[in-house]
Design goal:
The structure is a single chain. The chain is an all-alpha fold. It has helices at about 5-15, 20-25, 30-35, 45-55, 60-65, 75-90. Helix content is about 65%, strand content about 0%.
């Protein structure tokens, strides 16, 4: 999957809008919208790092849909469930 698809998937999963991500990252909504369009641009490494940090995922996951670790034995649903549990615990 592409950066665009992974970013869209994570925003949907976290029920976030580009406007909210823009506020949290300091990246303009217009720039984020560009990353989310079919023929849009890819972010710089610096901006990808900001986005990943705010979303609580790795840059590798946003870029390629994987992490450096070999977690191929886990389904995407398993990874989403674990991330949601971690976020829930962190918010307490």
């Amino acid at each position: 999957m592409s950066f665009r698809e992974n970013l869209r998937s994570e925003l949907d999963f976290q029920d976030l809008q580009a406007k909210e991500l823009a506020e949290r990252t300091g990246i303009s909504k217009r720039t984020l919208d560009g990353y989310l369009t079919k023929n849009g641009n890819e972010p710089t490494v610096r901006k990808a790092c900001k986005i990943a940090k705010v979303l609580g995922v790795t840059v590798e996951w946003l870029s390629a849909g994987t992490n450096d670790e070999d977690d191929s034995q886990f389904s995407e649903e398993d990874r989403r469930t674990v991330r949601a549990a971690i976020r829930s615990i962190a918010e307490k």
